[in-house]
Amino acid sequence: MAPAEVSRTIEAVWRIESARLIAGLARVVRDVGLAEDLAQEALVAAVEQWPESGIPDNPGAWLMATARHRAIDRLRRAEVHERKTQELGREIELRGDVEAPDLDAEIDDPFDDDLLRLIFITCHPVLSTEARVALTLRLLGGLTTSEIASAYLVPEGTVAQRIVRAKRTLSAARVPFVVPEREELADRLASVLEVIYLIFNEGYAATAGDDVIRPELIEEALRLGRILAGLLPGEAEVHGLVALMELQASRSRARVGPSGEPVLLLDQDRSRWDWMLVGRGLAALERAYGAGGALGPYTLQAAIAACHARARVAEDTDWERIVALYDGLAQLMPSPVVELNRAVAIGMAFGPEAALELVDGLTAEPALRGYHLLPAVRGDLLAKLGRDQEARTEFERAASLTQNTRERALLLERMAAHSARNGG
């Protein structure tokens, strides 16, 4: 195999296996920071050895075996961790599972899900909510600190500090690597759901790079959500989140044009939607309704997505119902982003003038200062009102704020179109 091909294969293997590798190692060494370091060391070993030895039949098992042997060596050498060395060294050796066949079983066993365990560890109450989200996105979603910062509209340095502190806190607290008992789950569920949805969102609308979507993150979030729904079948919001993700994911093929450009919801060819995922999403929404109690934020957002899914053509969308659902969401989960989305729905239901007044009221919001969708929405409303020069300025500002090259190109196209209409 040519060196370039080996390099591409290693990159692909790492993208697929890194989260499971870190999760499996964390269960063994009981330290997520150390687990990430060991996974990186195994990757370096693969880069050094695979070009000569060839790609193993089971790359994931090879990486896990290499990382585990390095874990034993490192713990034995670390005198400051002598007690931990003795305990973990004995545990790993007595179990006798450092060889590839046993690792295969551990990695592939769907009933022993290290990734789900790791989500609950990184969402442990010993951490702040912000730290739980940042660490889980880093370790399980493979997101960079820059991507996490974009998702949360905070500085990149802040995210980096949260991740470092979170690893230290978990290590110092010696948090057990287990799924919490059922009586403990409720306290940690909201953060877990938030993390899964943020992973999904980074896949569904990539904050940076050349791709509109990152399918691997969409699939990972869906997988984790479905596992969680099986674990907690009576929790309405778990089903609400799954419904929301299934319904949004159903649009993936239609969201990208032939040249990789983003296609807006109202312009999508709905025959390209995945109607199997639509069916799964609507069924999950019914399970959320059936669980009883007040509707939570994910169930409300899923109900909004269902309004779009039930409209076979954009003109049939029930925008007044969507506005009503956003009203409920804004009361339950007030935020500038929810208000911006609500304004879009009001514009579709009642006209752009009413929406523009609401959007203008959001321009002073600190949390939206660098959010490219605020000027994008404002530009769209101004364009509908025939105020092309102002629309051009807003699209130009939105293009300058996004880090996604495809999205930037679309915004610049819209800017140019309104410049031409205005004779500019």
- Give me the number of helical elements: 20
| Strands in their spatial order, largest beta sheet | 1-2
Question: Order of SSEs, N→C?
Answer: HHHHHHHHHHEHHHHHHHHHEH
Strand content: under 5%
The low-confidence parts are 97-112
Q: Kindly provide the radius of gyration, computed on alpha-carbon positions and rounded to a whole number of angstroms.
A: 24 Å
User: What is the quaternary state of this protein?
Assistant: single chain
Structural class: mainly alpha
What's the total number of strands? 2
Mean pLDDT: 85
| Share of helix, binned | over 70%
Overall 3D shape: globular
How would a textbook summarize the main sheet? 2 strands, parallel
**N/C terminus separation:** 55 Å
Describe the model:
The protein is an all-alpha fold and about 425 residues long. The protein is built from 20 helices and 2 strands. The chain has a two-stranded parallel ribbon. Helix 12 (about 235-250) packs parallel to helix 14. About 40% of the residues are buried. The model is unreliable at about 95-110 (pLDDT under 50).
